[in-house]
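To: structure subgroup
Subject: Chain for Friday's discussion

All,

I'm putting the inputs and outputs inline so they're searchable in the archive.
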Amino acid sequence: MSQTLRKMKFRDVDLEDPFFDSLKAQYQDFSDWFQRKADEPTYVIFDDSDGRVRGFLYLKIENGPINDVEPPLPAKKRLKVGTLKVQARGTKLGERLLKRIFDHAILEGAQEVYVTIFDTHEALIKLFERYGFVNSAVKHTPNGDENVLVRNLDNDFIDIISSYPRFETHHKNNWLLAIYPEYHTKLFPDSILRGENPAEEQDVAHTNTIHKVYIGKISLKRMKRGDIVAIYRTTDRPGLARYRSVISSICIVEETKSRSDFPTIESFVEFALNHSVFSEEELRTMYLSGERLYAVRMTYNVALPRRPNRERLLNEVGISEYPRWDFRPLSDGQLLRILELGELNEGFVIN
C-alpha cells in the first residue's frame, strides 16, 4: 500500500470523502469553514490505491496575543495547527505529519506552535506531549471545551525528544553514516532525491516514524546518546559517487546496541521492527545468523535543503578519501561546514 503526501489547495480536496465525516460531526461549522478556506494551502495524505484521504493537516501563522482562551496567551509569532487528523491503520503516520509541523514552524521563524484539541483524542494528545507540547490553556467553544497545547521553540535545550527537531552541537561527537539508496528512500522519505519516485514511499511504520533504526555489521557502539549523525546516501550509479553520493539528512543518536544487548530474538525484533527497513523474517534471519550485529536508534531531525555531494565533501569540507565512508567521525568544523553547505535553517540548531 503506497501513500503520497501532497501540498494542495482546500478547493482541490473532496470534502465528501468519508475521512471528513467525524470532523463534520464534531465541529458544527466544519463544512462552512472548509469552504471559506478554498484558496489556502493544506497538506493531504492520499491512499494511492483508491484515492481516499488518509491524513489532513492545516497550518496557519499567527501574530499577536490569543485572547479567546483561558488564560490568554501573550503576543508571539505562532504556528497554529488548525486541523490535524490521521487515519493511520496501525502505522505511525501521525509522527510524519508532526515532523512536517515542526519543519514548517522553524522555516517560518515561529516562536511557538499550538493546537486546540478535545480530551477524546487521547492518542493524539499523548503524541503532542511526548514532543514537548504543554497543556497551557482551555478554549470554550459551542462544540465543547478544548485543550490548548503549546510547544515553545525558543527555550533552551531540554532533551532530544522534548526539544525535537532542534538539536545542540556543543560537546557532541559527530559521525558520517552511509546508507544504500534502496534503503534510503524507505527510511528517510522527506530526504528523497530528485529523480527518485515518491510513490515508492510505503505507508509502513519505519517510513512514517520520527525514530529510525539502522542495523549493520560495523561497530556502532562508539556513538552515544545525543551524538549528531550526517546520513550519507551512497551512489545509485556505479562510477558516479563523486556526484551522486550525498549527505541528505541529520539525525541524533538515541541509543546504540550490539548483539549482546539482545538476550533473545524477540527483544531484537521488538527493538527494530517498526523503525528499520527490514521485515520480521529478515530480522530473525539476521539474529540467527550469528554474524556481527549492531543497531543504532536515531531521531530523524531534518532533511537538508541542499545535499553536499562527495566532491564537495572532499574539496570543501576536508573529509579524506580514506578510510572508507561507511562509518567515520567528523570534526566539529566539518559538521558545521556540512550544515552550511546544506543550507540548514539556523532555527534547527541550539547553540
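Points worth raising on Friday:
The first helix runs from residue 21 to 26.
The radius of gyration is 21 Å.

D.
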